[in-house]
C-alpha cells in the first residue's frame, strides 16, 4: 500500500499523483472516512473529454495487480482532532486487507531542521522494526539517511531524543502506531517549504523509485513521470511546456 500524508506543501499527494498517472492505475474504490474534509471534483487524471467528467472524492483507492501495488490517494485535509480515529481505521483496513507493507510519502518543514538535519540530502526515511528486519541492510546499500531524532528539550537536556516531524501531519502517529501493531511501514519524506512544490514531488517520487523501481530510471528524472492533466491548474500554470 502506497499513500501520502497530508503534510507541508502537499508533496506526498503530488508524488502519489505522478505514480497513479504514470502507471495508469485503475480506480477500484473509495476509502470512506469522516476524518477528512468532504470534497468532490472532476477526474484529476482525465485523458480525454469522455472521462473528464468522472467524479473524484477525498480518499480513493487505485490498484495495479501486475506490480502488487495498491495506492490510497488523499485529497483533502483532516478535520480537527481526527488524526487518531483515521489511523485506527486505516491500520485496521491494512490488517484486514493483508497488505504486506505500507509506504507513506510525507514532508516536513525545512525551516525547523536542527543542525544535523541541515547536512547532506533533504530526504529521509523511517522503518518500523518489522520492516527493518525484512529489508535487512537495503537502505544502507542505497546510501539513504534515516530521519534523525532531536533533543526533546533543546538547550536544557540534549540527551533525551524524540522523533519530531514538524509539518508532517499524521505521519508520526501513523508510524508509531504501526511500530506498536507490528505493521511493516516505511516513511519517505522530504524537507521543504510551502510554495510551488512540484519540484519537491519529483524529488520524492524519484527517491521512492530508487527503492521500489516502479518505472525504469532515466537520465532526465522528470521525463519518466506522466504529469496528470489536473496539474495544468496548479501554481498559475507555471509548469514548463516540456512537461506536457
TrEMBL record:
The record's section on Pfam families has: PAC2
Q: Which UniProt keywords apply?
A: Chaperone, Nucleus, Phosphoprotein
Main subcellular localization, coarse class? Answer: nucleus
Compartments annotated for it: namely:
Nucleus
Q: What GO CC terms are in its UniProt record?
A: cytosol; nucleus
Q: Which family does it belong to?
A: Belongs to the PSMG2 family.
Q: What does this protein do?
A: Chaperone protein which promotes assembly of the 20S proteasome as part of a heterodimer with PSMG1. The PSMG1-PSMG2 heterodimer binds to the PSMA5 and PSMA7 proteasome subunits, promotes assembly of the proteasome alpha subunits into the heteroheptameric alpha ring and prevents alpha ring dimerization.
The record's note on quaternary structure and interaction partners says: Forms a heterodimer with PSMG1. The PSMG1-PSMG2 heterodimer interacts directly with the PSMA5 and PSMA7 proteasome alpha subunits.
This protein is called: Proteasome assembly chaperone 2
Amino acid at each position: 500500500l502506497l499513500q501520502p500524508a497530508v503534510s507541508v506543501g502537499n508533496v506526498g499527494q503530488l508524488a502519489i499523483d505522478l505514480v497513479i498517472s504514470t502507471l495508469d492505475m485503475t480506480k477500484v474504490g473509495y476509502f470512506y472516512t469522516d476524518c477528512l474534509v468532504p470534497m468532490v471534483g472532476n477526474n484529476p487524471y482525465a485523458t480525454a473529454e469522455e472521462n473528464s467528467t468522472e467524479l473524484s472524492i477525498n480518499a480513493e483507492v487505485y490498484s495495479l495487480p501486475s506490480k502488487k501495488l495498491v495506492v490510497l490517494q488523499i485529497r483533502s485535509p483532516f478535520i480537527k482532532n481526527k488524526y487518531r480515529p483515521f489511523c485506527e481505521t486505516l491500520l485496521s483496513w491494512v490488517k484486514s486487507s493483508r497488505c504486506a507493507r505500507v509506504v507513506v510519502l510525507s514532508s516536513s518543514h525545512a525551516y525547523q531542521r536542527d543542525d544535523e538535519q541541515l547536512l547532506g540530502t533533504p530526504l529521509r526515511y523511517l522503518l518500523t522494526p518489522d520492516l527493518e528486519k525484512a529489508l535487512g541492510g537495503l537502505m544502507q546499500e542505497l546510501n539513504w539517511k534515516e530521519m534523525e531524532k532531536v533533543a526533546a528539550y533543546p538547550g536544557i537536556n540534549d540527551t533525551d531524543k524524540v522523533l519530531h516531524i514538524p509539518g508532517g501531519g499524521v505521519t508520526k502517529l501513523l508510524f508509531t502506531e504501526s511500530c506498536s501493531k507490528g505493521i511493516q511501514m516505511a516513511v519517505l519524506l522530504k524537507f521543504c517549504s510551502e510554495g510551488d512544490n512540484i519540484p519537491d514531488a519529483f524529488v520524492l517520487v524519484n527517491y521512492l523509485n530508487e527503492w521500489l523501481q516502479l518505472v525504469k530510471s532515466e537520465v532526465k528524472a522528470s521525463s519518466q513521470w506522466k504529469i496528470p492533466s489536473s496539474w495544468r491548474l496548479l501554481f498559475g500554470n507555471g509548469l514548463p511546456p516540456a512537461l506536457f
